[in-house]
Amino acid sequence: MSKIGKLPIEVPSAVTVNVAADSVSVKGPKGERTLPVRSEIKLSLDGATLTVDTTEDSRFAHAMRGTMRSLVSNAITGVTEGYVKKLEVNGVGFEVDIKGKTLILKLGFNMPKKFEIPDTVTVECPTLTNIIISGVDNQQVGQVAAEIRKLRKPEPYKGKGIKYEDEVIKRKAGKAFGSGG
């Protein structure tokens, strides 16, 4: 039995939730999300409380109940507050810029890397070394942040590369010279 799935979801007053047989749509001040609902799951809206229940008594249905409850809760959070990931670019001469829907990253390669920004997220560069990715879908925001970070992962010797703002890079010592061997 899912402990998370049993919990009701409180719907804020600024959010409208429409429950259909095979989908649920959540609309709020930041945007709109539509999620598919599996046949094992039944959603019911009672005033400002949304509950998730199962239509059959199986282990898979109970697992999907907790998953669906988390997805709907995350959608409500996304349309009210939004999700944000912050990246930092570290390295001499490393910088980022936005031209239209393209993020241009100078990361020490012979040519700048270009990253096409999807329509589902917004990307800002307040300084030459910071990237802020925001959107209503936490999966999309995390995916875009991971793809940008993958262009130049931080290395452990000098710490150069793209890292999350709160990420700690474990530093390694370089080669030790002068060992009289």
Order of helices and strands: HEEEEEEHEEEEEEHE
Can you count the helices?
3
Number of domains: 2
Strand order of the largest sheet: 11-12-7-13
The CATH superfamily name of the largest domain is Ribosomal protein L6
Please describe what this structure looks like:
The chain has 181 residues and is of the alpha+beta class. The protein folds into two domains: 3-80, Outer Surface Protein A, domain 3, CATH 3.90.930; 83-164, Ribosomal protein L6 (Outer Surface Protein A, domain 3). Helix content is 22%, strand content 35%. The protein is built from three helices and 13 strands. The protein has helices at residues 3-6, 59-80, 138-150, and strands spanning 9-10, 16-19, 23-27, 32-36, 41-46, 49-54, 83-90, 95-99, 102-106, 113-116, 121-124, 130-135, 161-164. It has a four-stranded antiparallel sheet with strand order 11-12-7-13, with helices on one face. Strands 1-6-5 form a three-stranded antiparallel sheet. A three-stranded antiparallel sheet has the order 2-3-4, covered by helices on one side. Strand 2 and strand 3 (23-27) form a beta hairpin. It is elongated, with a radius of gyration of 22 Å.
